[in-house]
Amino acid sequence: MIKDYKIITLCGSTKFKDEFQMIQKKLTLDGYIVISVGLFGHSGDEEVWKENIKEMLDDMHKAKK
Fold first, then answer.
1. How far apart (Å, rounded) are the C-alpha atoms in residues 39 and 30?
2. pLDDT score recorded for residue 64
3. Residue 1 falls inside a structural domain
4. What's the predicted TM-score (pTM) here?
């Protein structure tokens, strides 16, 4: 049986990596499906700053529903 889980999208600055991970864990344990950022450019994920990647990630994030 698959329940009707609510979906939550987390938004905010990627400099708050620890907070993103903490709230994502809490919400998941509370029974929510959590959509979050995939890379934390302001917290060490250097790939974000490669050519065209930041723009792609921004566009992908805006498409999350």
1. 24
2. 78
3. no
4. 0.76
